[in-house]
Structure formats: structure tokens, C-alpha cells
Write a structure and sequence with these properties.
The chain is an alpha/beta fold. The chain is 35% helix and 16% strand. It has two domains: 246 residues, 3-Layer(aba) Sandwich (Rossmann fold), CATH 3.40.50.300; 201 residues, 2-Layer Sandwich (Nucleotidyltransferase, domain 5), CATH 3.30.420.240. Helix 4 crosses helix 5 and helix 14 packs across helix 17.
Length: 468
């Protein structure tokens, strides 16, 4: 047996700490007092079999999950605490990183002794007090890993819960059979589907929504908790994304989406693109962007799209053309629309690499674009394709100002392709698009015009210096 917590020798004090989880943390870990929502989470675990916490970005989700794990372990004798997350890195580095830090700096018993004072034997993802009294990190690559965990006092914590697959949730439910079993699921509300969302909608679970606007740093406008959210972050995100944006709603407000099938370009937004501009589009020479989506297969089409800041001014669809002929078409468009160097953006994956290489060989300073590359904002987008499409979405969002106009030939086809583009979020809350093959199956052909428009919104930092 490992060194047991000294508090077991004082039943009265022990019972009080079990009733007052926040006070226990202040007494045995550190003086950092949880804020109101975090205290509510700990008390919900105390009082409810199931606690569901959809929360915004950087509000202390993992921190309070780790603190709850230690409180439950040391205030219920004996007990088992299991933690899991979508990836082993999240288990080992995030929640167990917090557990290690708190345990390392804990005070012991009633003596006030510092450094590992809580007792127990700590390893990488295991804190053992006795054979039937321990905390353990569990991976999610196999539901069978949750078999055999039964104890009168059992707490299972699912961190970043939206990313954990259904078989793991089912295995977790199989463990929650004891009289004092508890489940805490916490994370960003990524999708209006799946076990995390279902738990939030279930009246048998106590659901606590945590908005970034609730956090003391934001509410009081000062950095009270230095490791948490910046006081100005929500306001900055509102300006960047808009308060009606699904990214803002998930990452700032901690709200689930209204439905699972989110379409990237709402129909009413696209209808606005057919209206004439408020005044003439006075475009200076050289302000044009030329985007080229290069056909990969025989049935696909190459597309040349010219865009100004306020309008799609030209679309040309090229079918059945060899690459050198396409190069000639691109050179002609560059001259015709007076496109400046590095303002011709070409899909440089597959067949497009040859187009980029030949144009550079001819002395044209063009930019290659690889949709599969890392986004310039990887914390928001799964890849560059998702980021470019999102930037195109912002261009037709009426709440962001003058809407991009699409009034030239083929724009009806472009709008149809955009209208059929869904999006979703990964377990980290980042925007992702379905594979191009999925959209192609829905349309019956490749969304070449939509790809060309998205290419035209590639961030400068994401240009490919050398053809792929």
C-alpha cells in the first residue's frame, strides 16, 4: 500500500471536504480559487450522476477536470477515477499534465507539508493509493480498455468529449453501475450530433453551459486568471467572425449548432450576390485576382476565374484541353485583365504542378496553391481548403459589409456549387469540409467553379513557393 492521505484519520473534516470540493482544493492543492462556473461543475459532480459541460475556448475546462479528479479520488475511500480524451496526447499531456502539477504542489493532511503532500504513488498516467484506490488515464483506441472498472465510488472524466467515438461512450456506460458512480463530460460543443450532444439534451444529465463571456477575465475586463482567456479575446473574435458566426457561437459562447448539416453558403446570402452593386465597381488596373482550378481527370473542367475585391468579373470553363493549351489561356487572361505578379493563383496539386512550372519557366511570377496544406490559422481550420472556402463565405456575408457580386456568365453554376457545400467541425472545434469526392457525388460533377473562387481567397502566406 502507498502512503495514504492523512485526512482519512479525521472523519469529520473528511466529510466536510467531500461536501465542499472548492474548499478542499484551496486547503490541499493551492490557493487558486475556481471561478463560479468551475465551482458549479465540481458541485454538480458531487450531486449528480452525470454532468455535461459544453464550454467555450480557454475557460479552464481541463484545469477544473483535473482538480475534480483529485478531489473525488482523495475524498472518497476507496475510489477509482478514470480519464479519457480523443487522443492519447490529450490524455497524457493535457489533463494528466494538470494532475501532475497539482499533485506535485499539494499540501499534506493537516500538517501543511508541501510537495506531494496528498500522498500516493504517481506515474505517467496513474496515481495509486492502493490496489482498489487509484486514478488512471485510459486511451480511446479500444472500448475493451474500459472493462473491469467497478467500484462503489467511481468517476469517469471525458475531456474534449465531442471527439470521443460512440463505442467508448457505450463502454463507459457499462462501468457506471455502482451506487455512487459519476460521469463528467466536458469540451467544446462541436456538432449537434453524437453522444456529447445527446448527453447535453438528456434530462438525466445536469448540463452546464460555459460561455467565454461568463469568465471573470472577460466580465471584469482584467486578467484575474493569467492562464485563462484574454479579457479582449471575445470582442476581437466578434469583430473577426461576427456574433452570428457558427465559429463564434461554438468557441466563444459554448453553444451547440442548431443542426448538424451546416451549409457554408446560406441561400439568402447567395441571392444577394445577384443584386447590382450600390455604385460602380471602380477597379484599378492590376487589382484583379486570377484563380485557376486545373482539371485532374477527363470529366473535370479547368476553370479560370477573375475577381476584384467586390465582384467576380470573368469566368471561363475549359474542357478537354491539354496543359500547354491551358498555359496559353492563363497567359492570355493575365494580359487581358492586367493581373499583377503573384496575383495569379493556380491549384498546384497533380496536373496543376505542370501548369505552374511552365508559367514560371516562361518568366511569369505566379503563385501555387495546395488545398491540402496547413492553414494559415491552424487553430481554426483543418487545412487550407477549409480556410479558403471560409474566406469566400465571409465575402458573401451581408453582415460584413458589401457583398461580393456574381453577375457574369456561369455565376448561376457557381452559386449552385457553393450552395451544395457543407461544413462541420473536428474534435478541436476547427472548420473542416467533406472530401471533394463527397461534394462531387452530390453534384454529379466536380465543384470546379467553387474551387476556383476559393483559390482566389488564398492567404498570401499560404502560396506555394515551389510547385508540388
Amino acid at each position: 500500500m502507498c502512503a495514504a492521505p492523512r485526512i482519512k484519520d479525521n472523519t469529520k473534516f473528511f466529510d466536510r471536504m467531500r461536501r465542499e470540493p472548492a474548499a478542499w482544493g484551496a486547503r490541499f492543492i493551492d490557493s487558486a480559487r475556481p471561478w463560479a462556473k468551475q465551482i458549479e461543475i465540481m458541485e454538480s459532480v458531487r450531486d449528480n450522476a452525470r454532468t455535461c459541460v459544453p464550454a467555450g475556448h480557454c475557460v479552464g475546462k481541463t484545469w477544473i477536470a483535473a482538480r475534480t479528479a483529485l478531489w473525488f479520488l482523495y475524498c472518497h475511500m476507496p475510489s477509482i477515477v478514470l480519464t479519457t480524451a480523443p487522443t492519447w496526447r490529450q490524455v497524457e499531456k493535457l489533463i494528466w499534465g494538470e494532475i501532475h502539477n497539482m499533485h506535485r504542489n499539494s499540501y499534506g493532511g493537516f500538517s501543511g507539508t508541501h510537495r506531494n503532500g496528498l500522498g500516493g504513488e504517481m506515474s505517467r498516467v496513474n496515481l495509486r493509493i492502493d490496489d482498489l484506490w487509484y486514478a488512471q488515464g485510459v486511451s480511446t483506441n479500444s472500448p475493451e480498455r474500459f472493462q473491469g472498472y467497478h467500484q462503489e465510488h467511481l468517476l469517469i472524466i471525458i475531456d474534449e468529449a465531442a471527439g470521443v467515438e460512440r463505442p467508448i461512450w457505450e463502454a463507459v456506460e457499462g462501468c457506471l453501475t455502482g451506487p455512487h458512480s459519476r460521469l463528467l463530460a466536458i469540451g467544446n460543443p462541436v456538432s449537434a450530433d453524437g453522444p456529447f450532444w445527446e448527453m447535453a439534451m438528456n434530462h438525466n444529465a445536469n448540463t452546464i453551459h460555459v460561455s467565454c463571456l461568463d469568465h471573470p477575465n472577460v466580465a471584469k475586463g482584467q486578467l484575474i486568471y493569467p492562464q485563462a482567456i484574454s479579457p479582449t479575446w471575445p470582442e476581437e473574435r466578434e469583430r473577426e467572425w461576427g456574433e452570428d458566426s457558427p465559429i463564434y457561437q461554438r468557441r466563444v459562447l459554448g453553444q451547440f449548432p442548431s443542426g448538424d448539416a451546416d451549409m457554408l453558403f446560406p441561400v439568402d446570402w447567395l441571392q444577394r450576390t445577384t443584386e447590382p452593386p450600390a455604385d460602380q465597381d471602380r477597379t484599378k488596373d492590376g487589382d484583379n485576382v486570377l484563380a485557376v482550378d486545373v482539371a485532374r481527370f477527363g470529366s473535370d473542367r479547368s476553370v479560370l476565374l477573375v475577381r476584384t475585391a467586390r465582384a467576380v468579373s470573368h469566368i471561363r470553363i475549359i474542357e478537354g484541353s491539354d496543359l500547354m493549351t491551358l498555359v496559353g489561356r492563363v497567359v492570355d487572361a493575365m494580359k487581358r485583365f492586367n493581373v499583377r505578379p503573384r496575383r495569379t493563383l493556380i491549384d498546384s496539386v497533380g496536373m496543376g504542378a505542370g501548369v505552374v512550372d511552365r508559367l514560371r519557366e516562361l518568366g511569369h511570377n505566379v503563385a501555387g496553391v495546395n488545398f491540402g496544406a496547413r492553414a494559415s490559422k491552424p487553430e481554426l481550420f483543418v487545412n487550407l481548403r477549409a480556410e479558403c472556402y471560409w474566406r469566400a463565405r465571409e465575402a458573401v456575408d451581408p453582415k460584413r459589409g458589401e457583398v461580393l457580386r456574381m453577375r457574369v456568365r456561369h455565376c448561376d453554376v457557381l452559386r449552385m456549387e457553393l450552395q451544395q457545400t457543407p461544413y462541420s467541425f473536428d474534435s478541436a472545434g476547427r472548420i473542416k469540409l467533406p472530401p471533394k469526392e463527397h461534394i462531387k457525388s452530390e453534384l454529379g460533377r466536380s465543384p470546379d467553379l467553387a474551387d476556383a473562387l476559393a483559390i482566389s481567397y488564398t492567404p498570401t502566406s499560404s502560396f506555394v513557393a515551389v510547385a508540388m
